[in-house]
Design a protein that fits this description.
It is a single chain. With 383 residues, the protein is mainly alpha-helical. The chain has four domains: 132 residues, Endonuclease/exonuclease/phosphatase (Deoxyribonuclease I, Chain A, 4-Layer Sandwich), CATH 3.60.10; 55 residues, no CATH class; 80 residues; 30 residues, no CATH class. About 2% of the residues have low confidence. Helices cover 45% and strands 8% of the residues. The strands form four sheets. A three-stranded antiparallel β-sheet has the order 1-7-4, with helices on one face.
Length: 383
């Protein structure tokens, strides 16, 4: 089991060094079954003899699941419900062979994995692995999503706000819908599909978020001026006095244009914040929580949850178990007291009882002692 732990740790470390810009292909016998359905695994079971089989359970299956989820990989040969096992030996079967690529590159042709059971190199008897074949694009292009003609969630919430307030926008929309339904009744069309098509013609564009007040863009003239002086500065090739003054002129113009661009950007950011603050103030006075939270999210949008990755002292990224061990050691060092206490030695009085008694008897009676202490004259009387 320790060797498997080391292998998982090395695989985690290797994948952290690979760039996300390139197409990643990882295939082989991982000797581990996928026991849970996630966005990386389609079907955790496979088909055999008309039944769904799971295969053997592995104690380190959580490492395999964490590997796929952490690096956004997808096991391609788990998305066809009719696929059988990838390994067989007598009555035993399992699916421990996988072809994995990044989830963004796993299109429909890539997930259509073929199991080549009739391959010439597959043995007739004994244990054997079934070869897997799939199609992966050499140059991958993301698919363009089709434009959704329906209503978005923001548009429906805006309609709900207008419906609650019963304002002029809702009255106008209500009148348009009623007019369309009346025309449908006059045409003697009582089919529900036609009613649905008629109502579906009303889009949610009137209820889109107001984007008319956009940020003031950076003045294009300033940036163009900065580029022109940069090009002219690079064209100065002479080393005489005229070339020196020409370069000096272009450098000063570039600095001035850069300063003006910084001022324009600062003014644009301030104008944008003022617009957001005004919109939030109006929404708060009107008790419009939807518009208020939209203004808040325009300044502080929601951030996707990202897993924190810890590094070792050598700078290598740690896997799940190595990170847990590192945190355990860190908390132990934080809350443990490393001070070594010296042993307590037996105390010896620097004087004897006779010396102490003689000292008490020799206290002068005419001297004032501390207020909480009795008078020394009592000691002389007691002795």
């Amino acid at each position: 089991m320790e060797s498997r732990e080391r292998l998982w740790h090395q695989l985690f470390t290797l994948l952290t060094t690979l760039s996300k810009k390139n197409v990643l292909l990882m295939a082989g016998d991982f000797n581990c079954s996928a026991d849970q359905r996630t966005n990386a695994v389609g079907y955790p079971t496979f088909a055999r003899d008309g039944e769904r089989c799971h295969g053997p359970r592995h104690p380190d299956a959580d490492h395999w699941k964490q590997l796929l989820l952490q690096f956004d990989l997808m096991a391609l040969n788990t998305w066809n419900a009719g696929d059988g096992p990838a390994y067989e030996f007598c009555n035993q079967s399992s699916r421990i062979d996988y072809i994995c690529i990044r989830r963004a590159h796993a299109d429909q042709p890539a997930r259509d994995v073929k199991l080549l059971r009739d391959f010439a190199l597959v043995p007739i008897t004994g244990a054997f692995h079934v070869p897997l074949m799939t199609t992966i694009r050499r140059e991958w292009f993301p698919e363009h999503k089709k434009h959704n003609s329906g209503w978005t969630r923001q548009q429906r919430l805006q309609l709900h706000q207008h419906c609650t307030k019963q304002d002029s926008v809702f009255d106008m929309f209500h009148a348009q819908v009623n007019a369309a339904v009346r025309r449908l009744e006059e045409s003697n069309a009582s089919d529900l599909s036609q009613l649905h098509e008629t109502l579906n013609q009303f889009s949610g564009k009137p209820f889109q978020h107001d984007q008319s007040h956009k940020l003031d863009r950076l003045d294009a003239g300033l940036f163009r001026r900065f580029q022109e002086h940069t090009i002219k500065l690079r064209r100065v090739r002479t080393r005489d006095l005229a070339g020196l003054f020409s370069a000096w002129f272009h450098v000063s113009c570039r600095c001035k244009a850069r300063h003006l661009m910084a001022q324009s950007s600062k003014a644009a950011r301030k104008h944008r914040l003022d617009q957001v603050y005004d919109a939030a103030d109006r929404a708060e006075r009107a008790q419009d929580h939807f518009t208020l939270f939209q203004a808040i999210r325009s300044i502080a949008p929601k951030q996707p949850q990202k897993r924190i990755m810890l590094r070792s002292l050598q700078g290598e990224l740690l896997g799940p178990e190595a990170a847990a061990d590192w945190l355990q050691q860190w908390f132990h060092d934080l809350y443990s007291d490393g001070v070594s206490y010296f042993p307590v030695e037996p105390f010896e009085w620097p004087f004897t009882v006779a010396d102490f008694t003689h000292g008490l008897q020799t206290l002068p009676t005419h001297k004032a002692l501390s207020p909480p202490v009795f008078s020394s004259a009592l000691l002389e009387v007691w002795s």
